[in-house]
Design goal:
By secondary structure, the chain is mostly beta strands. It has 3 domains: about 120 residues, Sandwich (Immunoglobulin-like), CATH 2.60.40.10; about 100 residues, Immunoglobulins (Immunoglobulin-like, Sandwich); about 100 residues, Immunoglobulins (Immunoglobulin-like, Sandwich). Helices cover about 5% and strands about 55% of the residues. It contains 1 helix and 25 strands. The strands form 6 sheets. Strands 1, 7, 10, 12, 14 and 15 form a 6-stranded mixed sheet that branches. Strand 16 and strand 17 form a beta hairpin. About 5% of the residues have low confidence.
């Protein structure tokens, strides 16, 4: 065999392997990098595995995204391959280096046994120089193993919005229809400063059942909560004999403020002698009026306009610095219902 023929033969044998390597590499979409935040090679699939859960369990999860590229990215609405998974919310556009998320919910009342749900996420953009479009589709998977011999109805406890100090109760039922004799819930744990939890056995045919009642304490702190009730069983068929029931809701203060995150209103640098104005909104469960705003001064004031009683009132905040430097004032906003809410105004006076 001539040297030329030998060389061509070796190349011919090598080409399929090289082509296969390129093909395998292309199977990993570059859009997966949005979920790792790294420019290095991403995994073939972005995975969320909920593990083994009782049938009926409802769980949520947030896939975090980062745009690592120098152009804005459009995100099309993700379409799960199974109706048991739904997209609650997603970021539709990300600027360069901006972060986003996709919030999902899985309802295992529609799942029997192991389930793998595909969640493709399509990204597209245009080249900053040429204007040419380019796109990629990330491969996301959601996995769960729903045990039909254990079920929870409903699969989560949602209190919704509850006024502070108000007592509220919700219940769920846990069923066991497996073969283990003497199956029972041995103990349970929960956030005691937030909840009171009671578990009672129920008389049912063909299995074991418990009624779980969760009640919000009147002393529970204000704000959103997302907690868990952990139930430990004597299940000898599972390596992890623990059931988890998610509990969420919002305990709302009598007065809440919109437009001042964390109770702080920041006023950008304002030239001395000039004015800057922002608005906040005070909300309540019942109609009210604003009687007074205490704590004004050092260039921080309000320009209230008399309004009828309502569940929401607008409060304009004016910053007119008298001198160069930072200003920090705490305003106490009083209502005709006897309730008060405070906000802190932070501003900086700058030279003309």
């Amino acid at each position: 065999m001539s040297r030329l023929l030998l060389t061509l033969t070796v190349l011919a044998l090598a080409l399929p392997a090289a082509a296969q390597e390129v093909t395998l590499e292309k199977k990993v979409p570059w859009a997966n990098k949005f979920f790792t935040g790294e420019k290095s090679s991403p995994p073939p699939v972005i995975l969320q595995d909920f593990g083994t859960v009782p049938q009926g369990t409802v769980k949520t999860y947030r896939f975090k995204m980062t745009n690592i590229y120098a152009v804005p990215m459009q995100v099309r609405e993700p379409k799960p391959s199974c109706g048991c998974v739904s997209v609650i919310e997603y970021t539709g556009k990300m600027e360069p280096r901006e972060t986003g998320h996709i919030d999902i919910k899985i309802d295992t009342s529609r799942v029997d046994g192991q389930k793998v749900v595909r969640l493709p996420v399509h990204f597209d953009a245009r080249d900053a120089k040429t204007g040419q479009p380019f796109f990629s589709e990330a491969e996301l998977e959601v996995r769960v193993n729903s045990r039909p011999d254990i079920s929870i109805k409903p699969g989560f406890i949602e209190f919704g919005t509850v006024a502070v100090g108000e007592k509220a109760g919700k219940s769920a039922t846990i069923y066991y229809t497996g073969r283990q004799a003497g199956w029972e819930i041995k103990e349970f744990g929960y956030k005691k400063e937030l909840l009171d939890v009671k578990i009672e056995p129920l008389a049912v045919r063909g299995g074991v059942a418990y009624k779980l009642t969760a009640s919000l304490k009147a002393s529970a702190p204000t704000g959103a909560f997302d907690e868990q009730i952990v139930l430990k069983t004597n299940d000898n068929t599972s390596p992890n004999p623990v059931l988890i029931l998610n509990v969420s809701g919002l305990i709302q203060a009598p007065l809440s403020v919109v437009g001042a995150p964390g109770g702080v209103l920041k006023m950008e640098g304002v030239v001395v002698g000039k004015k800057s104005q922002k608005q906040i909104i005070i909300r309540a469960e019942k109609a009210f009026k604003i009687d007074a705003v205490d704590g004004q001064g050092d260039g921080v004031s309000t320009s209230l306009v008399p309004m009828d009683a309502a569940k929401a009132q607008v409060v304009p905040i004016v910053f007119e610095p008298k001198k160069v430097g930072p200003v920090k004032k705490t305003l106490s906003i009083k209502t005709d219902t006897g309730e008060t809410v405070t906000i802190t105004v932070e501003g900086i006076g700058i030279e003309p």
